[in-house]
Amino acid sequence: MTDLAAEREIDLGRWKQAAVERWWLVAAGLLAGAVIGALLSLSGGSIYQASVLLAPGQPFSPQGSPVLSYQSSPRAIQQLATSESALKRASRSAGIGIGALRGHVSTQTVSTGASSSTASRGATLIRITVQLHKPKHAEDAANALGRIVVSDTTSSYVKQSITGYTTKIANYQQQLSALQLRIQTLQRAIAVQSLAFLEKLLLVSQLDNAQTRYGTISDNLSLAQQQQTLAQSVELAQVIEQASAVKTTARSRRNSILVGALIGLIAGAIVAIVVDTRARRARSA
After folding, report:
1. I need a labelling partner for 77 at 20 to 30 A (CA). Which of 30, 124, 145, 161 fits?
2. One domain for residues 100 and 239
3. Pairing status of strand 105-111 against strand 238-241
4. What pLDDT score does 185 carry?
């Protein structure tokens, strides 16, 4: 065992000495590896990354409490954005083959930092990212997936709510117009000087009722408008930011150079050891 350990120490010493004496071989290997790594990083080409930012819809009940639904779940949106059906529709919209999208679409949940559970659900954003070799294709595909997710995650309940609010607003506005005309007519009638006291008292009472009803309907109209705005801006899923392609390298140039240099250094050291061993054998012979 002692002889074997001593022999290994001698071999290691010889290898170290060979690498030092033939340092130019080690340096050449290091340089060649770095150059090859740099060339490989360039040969990998460039890809473009485009991301679209979405706000999932959060439906509310008529009482104002949030309604739990898969359509506002980040996990469900991820499954939808990467589904075969969504990829087919997005590929047709972007004018590319579906094979180019498979495996190149990802989603990320972006939290705005809200603390409560209800607020955090409403404040969660979804980023859909597409990576392709052409910037226009990446942008078109990402935007198409954004539109698909918005369309498929908007429930009929929210759409019906918005339609109902629109109808309410139109009805309230019609009632206010009619009441405004009635109030003006009563005001002109009261202003007649020859009107009897009891008749004028009756008209004043009618005017007071009309003005009270006008105020009530105005409050109802304001509430319906607020509910419609809430449904359109919060309950309805929407695209917050359109996709814009950004160039990114397929391989990291720095990492490729470092790895290539390390491999070249090892290869140069091995060559130096082999050359030194053959030289020793030649001298011995």
Report:
1. 161
2. yes
3. unpaired
4. 92
Q: How many domains does the chain have?
A: 3
- CB neighbours (10 Å) of residue 54? 25
CB burial of residue 51 (10 Å; 0-12, 13-18, 19+):
buried
Note the pLDDT of residue 251.
54
pLDDT band at residue 51 under the 50/70/90 scheme: very high
In whole angstroms, what separates CA 36 from the centre of its chain?
37
Contact status, residue 183 vs residue 207, Cβ threshold 8 Å? yes
What confidence tier does 69 reach under pLDDT thresholds 50, 70, 90?
confident
What secondary structure does DSSP assign to 204-219, as a single string? HHHHHHHHHHHHHHHH
Q: Integer distance in angstroms from the first to the last C-alpha of the chain? A: 29
Question: Beta 105-111 vs 46-55: how paired, if at all?
Answer: unpaired
- Domain enclosing residue 26, as ranges: 22-44+252-275
In total, the chain counts a number of residues equal to 285
